[in-house]
Design a protein that fits this description.
The chain is an all-alpha fold and 180 residues long. The protein has a domain at 48-144. The chain has seven helices and no strands. It has helices at residues 10-30, 48-61, 69-84, 87-104, 113-122, 127-139, 147-150. The chain is globular. The chain starts with 9 loop residues before the first helix and ends in a 30-residue tail after the last helix.
Length: 180
């Protein structure tokens, strides 16, 4: 029989596990990532290649250099969920991405911004583009994880409104030169 006393009790190990799981959940809930790409794109209707290209296309439609791809991926997952129940949307997404990739030689990310913009403008009235744009404007900007990047503090109703909470406290607008 070994007389070596364990460093940690079973209770201490369980407690550390619960604390680690709680911290991980808090990071996920807050949209915080510990590494640049510690997320996985999960799609059901679209294939992984189409979905991956769609993340890059979505970033080109609504470019925000300070946002991680995880937020764009969440938007792609959102439209993928819609496409799972809508065969017309699914076909529009698959065909739209395929056509853009055909026009780029398959490498959207290596194109200059001006060329990507030109290609998107050519398909701006297509159902593909309209579906992606319409989904993105809601799923990207309604994500509480991106709000801090834009200085938005969220709904004010629960906190008594903006009048007494700094309705004019934004720092990113230039000063008006007028004193109130």
């Amino acid at each position: 029989m070994n007389n070596v006393k364990p460093q940690y009790s079973r209770r201490a190990i369980l407690k550390m596990g619960v604390m680690t799981a709680t911290a991980a959940y808090a990071y996920v809930a807050a949209g915080i990532s510990l590494s640049g790409k510690s997320w996985a794109l999960t799609v059901k209707a679209l294939d992984d290649n189409t979905a991956s290209h769609l993340v890059s296309i979505a970033r080109s439609i609504y470019p925000h250099p300070s946002l991680d791809d995880v937020y764009y991926a969440a938007s792609v997952e959102s439209i993928d969920a819609q496409a799972a129940n809508d065969p017309v949307l699914k076909k529009a997404l698959i065909d739209g991405v395929a056509n853009l990739m055909k026009n780029t030689g398959g490498d959207w990310n290596s194109l200059p911004l001006a060329k990507r913009t030109e290609l998107l403008q050519q398909v701006a009235s297509d159902p593909f583009f309209q579906a992606v744009r319409g989904n993105m404007v809601v799923s990207l900007y309604d994500n509480p994880g991106v709000w801090p990047a834009f200085g938005y503090e969220g709904s004010s109703f629960e906190k008594g409104g903006y009048i007494n909470r700094g309705f004019d406290d934004i720092q990113w607008l230039p000063a008006s030169g007028k004193e109130g």
